[in-house]
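re the bet — no i am not wrong, look at it urself. input seq straight from the record:
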Amino acid sequence: MKNSVLSFFAILLFSFQLSAQKSGDDPVLFSVDGQPVHKSEFEYIYSKTNGDKADFSKASLEEYLDLYTKFKLKVKRAKDMQLDTIPALKQELAGYRRQLADSYLIDKEVTDRLVREAYERTKQDVDISHILVSLTDKSTPADTLKAYKKAMEAKTKLENGESFSAIARAYSEDKSVTKNEGRIGYVTALFPNGMYALETAAFTAPKNKAVGPIRTKLGYHIAYIHNRRPARGEAEVAHILVRGSGKELIRSKMKADSLYKLLEAGQDFEVVAKQFSDDKASAAKGGYIGFFGINRYERSFEDTAFGLDVGKYSKPIQTSVGWHILKLINKKVDEPYDVVKNRLETAIKKDIRFEIAKEAMVERIKKEGKFTEFNTTLQSFTDSLDQEFLTYKWKAPTKKSDKILFSFGTDTKVTEADFAEYAQKASRQRLRMGRGTKVRDAVTVLYNDFIGEKALEYEERQLENKYPEFKALMREYEEGILLFEATKMLVWDKASQDTVGLKEFFKTVDGKYQWKKRAEVTQYSLKESAKQLQHQVREYSEKHSPQEVMAKFNTEEIPVLTYKERVYEEGRNEVLGRMDWKIGALSASEVSKRDKSINWLKIEAIKKPGKKTLKEARGYVVADYQDSLEAEWIEELRNKYKVKVNKEVLEGMVK
């Protein structure tokens, strides 16, 4: 029940966008005991709750206004009962806040921005060349400086007018440079993991100009953007391949032409591919290759595929392996954001750009939060350590130091003891660094991670102040919890536990809860191993009691027959629904799918319709009693708290 109540508020887990921010543009729709509810709040919840049925008709708005007013009345009563001060409820709300805040900040500032950025980039293809000066994880600072100077030297020569191909051959350490002279060709987002900086340059740098050096996981790049075009997307293609090169080229071309003529004469593409294509892997599938994007196949192959209309096939075209006839099955171009969002998000969270963006966010938080370090404290802590710090034996000092390590603003101070406790908990990270790591370097790594964690905690505490939608979301969570608790105390628990009240209520509805006609039945089950006895047992059971039937056909060694006694109300059992309701009537035998046993019913007695007792109807009575108590409660609340509705604002919402 609690989940169903809170599900009403779960819709607000996604961007709660207020329609207006200024009070003049966001009038009060109604108030409860002077507490205002603005138009934007009501309008949003009305739209989300009603979905496609939110037609903003007068009748619909008035109906939902009545529901939301009742909700706010209950919340007001809960606050007057001081339920919002109960430690357990405060802890529950704090738990919701932690769960939400942990992801909210990252999603809002990092994930959403990167996904939107990636989506916009996928709308373009970029024709790019590059020069690479390689670096590895083992490169020293001296290696890095040397690589940077080499990249700068190449860039200077390009800026002085020397040809890109010549400089690429002379400077680039990309193994493909001997074939392509640095020309990668058209590419699109996302670039491979670790290449985010080069991707950013590809989509933002000016065309026809050397840019860089750009650092990626491969080293330093000098990039040159030749052109950008609307993205080709992906093509779904089938092909017929006739292999041939050198001396075989003419013969293979003649065969390809003959196959093309077959297609022109009306032969099915799949049939021709299966029978004649030299690509045996795809031939078995009627030539089907599947979807592919740009820069995967040779230029002639790609250009032809993307140049076709859906459903059409090409004339024979040549690649390095022979001649192809291509058929375009479908295209994916400029897919809607909602379609690709999840796919992009999954890829981005695995990409280094995600960590880069988080680091940038931390730097922004530090700057806005007036982050101040006290490096002498960190130095003192580091000096107190030895190599044991990098083992499982190290523990934080029992005497906690209150020396300030760093602070955010004037109200958030982080001490040396806080960092020591964090370092102790980070035992896996310390052990991974191992004894080969200098203690100073290990402390630096942990310290930077610690700053990042504390920066996020600091920013999460500012969420209500910085983001009105988050504040509104937390209000809805709080009100949902209070609503549940107040209703539980004043309605649900009372209805189920107030025995005297329930009996008195039952008297007021005496006769409402009725039994239909009921059948007392015996359900027999005969084991598959004794199925040859079926007719004997059925015939005997028709005129004898279950005990007599058991005694006749069961032995202590081999009990082949069992029974259960049941009472079914009319319309409650499918088998009985197919029977004439007569005492002694047997149903048709049915074989159980589970154990192959043979089962049938016998009607032993028939009960006439009649009133249910409180015990028999208790579930229904409790539910109705709850409704009655809630109606009384709402009436009491309306008398206790004044509700004032701005009719003019309500009329203005009608469409």
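see?? The chain has five domains: 1-80+467-513+612-655, 124-230, 234-332, 370-463, 515-609. told u. also The domain at 124-230 is CATH 3.10.50.40 (Chitinase A; domain 3). so pay up
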